[in-house]
Amino acid sequence: MTAISDNTARSTSSPYGEAIRQALYAALLSAGLFFFFIGLESTQDISNRLILRSHWGVLATVVALVAIGRFLFIAFVLPAVDRRRANRGPIAVVAEKDQSFLRRHRFKIMIALLVLYPVIIVSTVGMQGSLKWVNNFGVQVLIYVMLAWGLNIVVGLAGLLDLGYVAFYAVGAYAYALLGTHFGLSFWILLPAAGIMAAFWGVLLGFPVLRLRGDYLAIVTLAFGEIIRLVLINWRDVTKGSAGISGIPKITFFGWFDFNVSSPNYIGKVFDIPTSGAYYTIFLYYLILALALLTAFVTIRLRRLPVGRAWEALREDEIACRSLGINTTNTKLTAFAIGAMFGGFAGAFFAARQGFINPESFVFLQSAIILAIVVLGGMGSLSGIAIAALVMIGGMEILREMQFLKLVFGQNFTPELYRMLLFGIAMVVVMVWKPRGFVGSREPTAYLKEARAVSSTFTKEGHG
Amino acid sequence: MQYFIQQLINGLTLGSIYGLIAIGYTMVYGIIGMINFAHGDIFMIGAFTALIVFLILSAIFYSVPVVVALLIMMVVAMIMTSLYNWTIEKVAYRPLRGSFRLAPLITAIGMSIALSNFVQVTQGPRNKPIPPLVTDVYNVYGISISLKQIVIAVVTIVLLTLFWYLVNKTSLGRAQRACEQDRKMAALLGVDVDRTISITFIMGASLAAVAGTLFLMYYGVVAFSDGFVPGVKAFTAAVLGGIGSIPGAVLGGLLIGLIESLWSAYFSIDYKDVAAFSILAIVLIFLPSGLLGRPEVEKV
């Protein structure tokens, strides 16, 4: 552990001696760290008293794995990385002009693939089998893509660190749930209403924090997010507290047909096709895809408008921004409002999809996940964020599917339990390995003359 | 009146625990300018270690004097949390020190998620109750003061004195204060900055471990998710007192504890966390440098 940054010593002597030493250190450290937490487990016995159960075998395995991992890392991975770095030479500044067809049209191809995704799934695994794939991988990932793109406006473009984004998601979800169940209004009316309401809350919460910057802003937004969640839990007359709101109406297709088997306008009856639960899921997939693409479209367009330029200027340097006569108050508030609006849309969609919501869906962890996706994707880069959402959320969903792991670790092994643990570790590892995110483009859209080699990528942020 | 004093005492007890955690936040923020988001979970690790040590002690010995048991729990918890915080700093924060400001905050959040879920996976998701360690309650003019409250007060005062001595009178504390003011200059003058930062993390973790042990003793129960809310409240305390200021952290902790217990007593127990979070927001908005903090100078 001590020689993490000690690059010179490694190249002169044989790497194996050093690697073995490091592996021993790592083993010792992990034995210390895990002795109480993996080696011993506190469980209740029959009379509900806590007793200790020991797992020395597991502890030994984990320690051995850490040691082996450390050894391989020092002995093989690091020299390989060094060699590559040495051979690479200066980075080519000018991008290649003649790109292949695939590269030039990669966004169109991506969108086409996304549109065709349910069709491909249905044709390979059938209607009933497609449910899981479209829902867990399609809809679930796209919700996070949309949320992350929405948050990207606040964090990635305007540089305002928001740790309470999930509050707007909650506002949208509860707006649809309450108005939908009490007044029977249609989703298509309530979707904009939820967006407007969330935007209103965005301004309301944004207003007091205008003067704050960086970490302080993050903490206050976290506090606001928690306050909204706690109010949702405790304001039982309206929100029914932790019991949540159930029976949230499903979305209809503009009144033409709907997805309730018992209703006269059921899609199966209208089109004379067999009853299946998959229609609704596929419909939801296209809806969230449309909403997400709308978010992306608006973001791309806004970046070219004066307000988008002002956001980016604000992110780069607030003081310079103010000196140039940009109204930072309005700039910040619009960023909060527009980001919150997309959160509200996503929330309304979420409520309609689940049919049931309670405050448990809007915990701080969700904000952290969304923020992690934005940062890991490389703030400001839409495609990077989409990739990050796919990797992080899709990866968590895949873990759920890995039932074969039970054969390796025994029947009691439940991969779901490890999802958040791995998510947390992945956040750390990706951040340390690639601090600028997977794609990592944060250059301003507009330049005075040309993009310089030392650009905003290296400036500090969090000053917004 | 008696009821009020009773709540005052309860609040101060709670506040001492928050204060002990808050010192860890405030020191780390002072020295490297980052919010160590995982600190609340370090506190939880401390409480859990204390629990496991307690179980080991009660499994091996038929009966241990409570003072000895508490001391052993505390010391082992301090060692464990120090080990954790030291490793976390080394693995997750140090490589990102020169990076952009958000980077260490993200890894800290990742670490926080990883730690609480690690404990959930290895120790199970349920609450872990232990039989009460200290049960004596004294009655003074109609106000009941339990022995555990006295223990908490005494331990806090002793530790804070020790801590004050460490920071203000030793060369280590001088190095810490130097790094806080100007890390580069401190390095030029021969202060080992990396080592000082590591020690800061270890000191913060040790205090969090003591807070965890006291928490376990006071409430008699701990769960994997117990790090988040006390963590955020302690951070609130640190901000309220003025981040970077150690007496401020203690003062802020006591105030938060008082507000929370008085709010629960006189208004609504459901909204006590709302009160704490609202105070955080209000303080940051109207008094960003806290009660005892120095105002931050804006450098262009």
Describe the model.
The complex is a heterodimer of chains A (464) and B (300). With 464 residues, chain A is mainly alpha-helical. In chain A, 66% of the residues lie in helices and 3% in strands. Chain A is built from 18 helices and four strands. Chain A has a two-stranded antiparallel sheet. Chain B has one domain (2-226). Chain B is globular and about 60 Å long. With 300 residues, chain B is mainly α. Helices cover 73% and strands 4% of the residues of chain B. Chain B has helices at 2-32, 39-60, 66-93, 102-123, 147-169, 171-181, 183-188, 193-219, 228-241, 246-266, 272-286, and strands at residues 128-129, 137-140, 143-146, 221-222. Chain B contains eleven helices and four strands. At the A-B interface, helix 2, strand 1, strand 2, helix 8 and helix 15 of A face helix 2, helix 3, helix 4, strand 1 and helix 9 of B. Chain B: One of its GO terms (cellular component) is plasma membrane. Chain B: Pfam families: BPD_transp_2 (PF02653). Chain B: It is found in: Cell membrane.
Please estimate the helix content of chain B: over 70%
- Poorly predicted sequence stretches spanning 5 or more consecutive residues of chain A: 1-12, 451-464
- Largest interface chains and counts: A-B, 63 and 68 residues
Structural class of chain A: mainly alpha
Q: Tell me the number of helical segments of chain B per DSSP (H or I, 4 or more residues long).
A: 11
Strand arrangement in the largest pleated sheet of chain A = 1-2
pLDDT below 50 for ≥5 consecutive residues: which ranges of chain B? Answer: none
- Main structural class of chain B: mainly alpha
Strand order of the largest sheet of chain B: 1-4
Query: What Rg of chain B is obtained from the alpha carbons, in whole angstroms?
Result: 19 Å
- Main β-sheet of chain A: number of strands, strand sense, barrel status? 2 strands, antiparallel
- Indicate how many domains the architecture of chain B comprises: 1
